[in-house]
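Page 42, continued from yesterday. The earlier attempt failed because a stray header line got pasted into the input along with the sequence. Redoing it now with the clean sequence only.
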Amino acid sequence: MTSRRTRSPHPGRAAPAPLARSGLPWLAGFCTLIMGSAFAGQNAPAAAATDAARIAVRSDATAAAFDLRVRDSVSGRALPAQLSLAPVGAATARQRLDLAAAGGRVAGLAPGEYRLTVSAPGYLPVVTTVHSDNALGLPTTVWLSPKRESEALDLLALKAAECSDCSVLSGHVYDQRTGPPLAGARVRSGLGERAVADADGYFELRGKFVQDASRQDAPPPTTSLEIEAPGYRAQRLEGLSLVNDSSHFVVDLARGSGRSVEKRVHAQAEDNAAALREREALMRQLDADNAGQAMRAGQTLAAAQVSATAVSVPSSIRVGTNCSGRSCSGVSVYSLEDYVAKGLDEEWIPSWHAQSLAAGAVAYRTYGAYFVAHPINSRYDICNTTSCQVFNADSVSATVAAANATRGVILSRDGKSAAFSEYSSENNAWDDPSDGLSCSNNDLSCGNGNNGSPRNNWPCLSDSVGKGKGCFGHGRGMSQWGTQRWAANNGRDWKWITDHYFNNNNKPAGMRNAFRSDGGGSPNPGGAPGTVDTNGTPLNVRSGPGTGYSVVATLADGSSVTIQCQTNGTSVTGTFGTSKIWNRIGSGRFIPDAYTQTGSDGRVAPDC
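This time it went through. C-alpha cells are written below.
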C-alpha cells in the first residue's frame, strides 16, 4: 500500500519532481508554494528565493493564490504539514507540497475547484475544497485534530468542580503573523484573577463567580479576558460565559499598540436586530428552497428515510471568519466533529444538562453538514455569526463531551443527505408582550404550550415544557430551551429530545419529518476514523469485501467513515495505490482501503 502522505496514484512509479521543476497541463504555469521569501520543500536557487515577486512564475500569480496555515485544533500551535492538491476529478494530476509552520502562499492555480488534503505526523488528515477564480483567495487556516485525544480540558473541568461556583479559563497566546507562542503574555480576567503565559504561551485562571438561582431561564453571567504582551496590540474578549466548567481559548495577538475588543455575546442573549433579521432572511429563503421536502397528508416514508443508514456525513467544513453578517474575510477549515465540539457552546448554554447539549450537538452538526452541501460562498460553506450559526474556536469541556457522545449522528429527510435542521431559542407559539423577547414566528396559531409554524410547513407539536414562555425565535424545528427543560426537569435523553422536535416521536408530518442517522458511514468511538478520498466521484459501498459484491449505497467524496475492522478482498487501484484491504464501516458495508484516507501506511483497525 502506498504512503498516506505521498499518495502516488500509480504504485511503483517515481514520485513527481518538485514543483519548481515540473509542469502540469491543468495549471497555467506551475502551482508554487511561497514561504515568505523562500520556497518550502523545494530546491530553489538562493538568489531566486529572495524576492516573492520573482518566485511567482505567472505574472498574475499573486491574484490566483491564497495564504495557508496549519494549526493544532486543541492548542492552536502552528504546524508544519504536507499538502496534496489536485483538480477535482483529476486525481492523476495530484501534486505535493511541504508547508512550514509559519505558513505560505499557494500560487499559480488555474481557475477551478481543487481537492486539498492536509496532513501532519500525529494528526488526523483533513480533506477540503479550494476554489480558484484568478482573484486573490481568502487567507485560510486548516485545523488538524491530534490522533490522541487530549484530556487536558477534562482535567481542568475537575479543577472547576472542586467548588460549585468556580470557572477555569485557560488558553494559549501566539504571534498572529508568524505563529510562535508569546511567553510572558499577561492575562487578566474580569473576576480579578491574573496569570502569565509560560514558554508554550499557555495560561490558566480559576475564579469564583456568583450564580443567581432566580435566573434559571436566562443565560449565565459573563466575564472578560484581557491579554497583553510588549510590542503587541492588547486584546479584550468580552461576554465570556461563566459556568462551572473549563474553557480554553486560542488568542492571536497582532504587533502594534492600542487595544482591540471582541464581543462574545452568547446567541441566547443576542439582541442585534440587524443580525437577527439577516439570519431570518436566510432561514426564509432556505425554507422556500426545502419546501418540497415537507410530507404531504397521507404520505408514507420510505424505509431509507426512516433509518437514514446511508447518510453522507462530510468530514470537514469551511468556516468563514472575520465576518460581517455573511461576508467573511478569512477561512478556517475544521473536521466536522471539531466544528461541533468548539461551536456548540456558542448556540447552546454550556451549563445545560448533558442530554440537552447532546441533542443540540445533533442539530448543530446537521446544520453545518447542510451548508457543506449548500455553501453560501464558493470559498466557505458557512459564516461564524448569528447570520448563519455562531462559532468561535474556544472549547468548553461539557460541549466537547456532547459532540463526542453523538459523534457522526445527523438528521436526514431523504436518507441520503443532511436535513436543514432549524432551531431557535424559545419555540412556544405564544408571544408574551411584556418579556421584551423578539418573536419572529409569523404563525402563532398553534397556541400556548405548543411549537410550530403551520404557515411555514412546521405542524403544531405539543410541547408542555414551554407553556407560558414567550416566543423568542421563529418557532420551527428544535426549541433550545425546550431541550434543557426536557432533559433537566423530565429526564429525557438526547435521542428522545431530537426525535420529539424533528419527527414528533415517529409521527412525522410536514417539515417535522427528519430522522436521526443510525451511525452507518459515520464515526463512533469504537473504530478508526477515515475519510473517503476519490477526488470528486461517489464511492460504492458494497455488501462484502470485493467488487463482485452488490452495491448497497454510495458515499460522497470527503465523507467521514469509521473503520470497524479490515479484511482482504479484491485488489483495487485507487487514490492511495493498489491494495487488497477492504474496510468494514457497518453491517454488510465495505469500502476499498485504496480510496480511504486514514493517515497511516498500515492497517488501522482489527482484522474482521
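Notes: The first strand starts at residue 32 and ends at 35.
Reminder to self: strip header lines before submitting.
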